[in-house]
Amino acid sequence: MTATPSSIEQVIPEQGSTAQPSVKPTKAKRKRFRFVANGKAATGLIMIAIYVLFAIIGPWVAPYDPDARSADLLQPPSAKHWFGTSHLGQDIFSQILAGTRGVVVVGAIAGIVATILSVLIGVTAGYLGGAADEGLSALSNVFLVIPALPLIIIVTSTITNAGDIVVALVIGFTSWAWGARVLRAQTLSLRRRDYIEAARATGEKTWRIILFEILPNLTAIIASGFVGTVIFAVLSEITLAFIGISSVSSWNWGTILFWAQSQQALAQGAWWWFVPAGLAIALLGTALSLINFGIDEFVSPRLRSSGTGRYRTPSGDRVKMKVGFTPVIRGRAETAPEIKIKDPEGVAR
């Protein structure tokens, strides 16, 4: 017996022989600002916003002039001096507020310069291939084997009165090679994808393919590389100030540590001279690391909520996701609808 499509009816128990399955249309709610909703990323962004705010208004809201001397020599933290004073009676809290601007400026400029160079060189080498790839890859390999910190020390020591901008540019121009290698590898995997071939076949220009097809898929890697470069730039700038390579006349956290070490603050028991600056460095690194972790979890669904997130399907069932395991659906068991077929005479079978 042959059944025509018009003779097939679904019979759902307790709803009659001609009832149609009731499907509630559900609109998939698009989660906006999913990256900000991540707890790690949100915490890191809030901490970075506080640092940026202090970098902008720090020198203006500092209770004292960071260079001003007083009779309060090596005083511990008090209501008058929140973070204590140095051997010259200088307020350490004011020095930290004034030094925040230099650290943030160096990290931002170095991160931007290194990211731009890594994107230009890495994506260009990966997409063009051939001689261009060989030349740019050789250039990246050269900068990879060059020790960055000794080169920064040599350059900044030869330039008299090297300010924060010069230090940031030197760090940025010597810190792009690793990011370029990563972007080149990812671009090589993307250049042969179907949508790239389709765009090339339709006559799209190379710059449009790179700008609108490849770069959006590299956004997370670029952001992660930027965060890593900022961390390296901040630590490098503080290291240069701590060992006395850069100018010690302008305040930053490394300068505070330089004077604390040169005056043997630890031996004198003046813990307040170096602990606040160390905590400021540690909290800034923690904030940048949290943002980096948030980017990783935003890109990789397996890392979101450590793979133990619970989700609800449109039918109301709960799905528990586990890394490396098949999702398990927990909910009500649905009964398959009965199907009755009518023969040409109208008799249901």
UniProtKB/TrEMBL annotation:
InterPro entries: BP-dependent_transpt_permease (IPR050366), MetI-like (IPR000515), MetI-like_sf (IPR035906), OppC_N (IPR025966). CDD domains: TM_PBP2. Residues 1-23 have a biased composition (Polar residues). It is found in: Cell membrane. It is a multi-pass membrane protein. Belongs to the binding-protein-dependent transport system permease family. This is ABC transporter permease. It comes from Dactylosporangium fulvum.
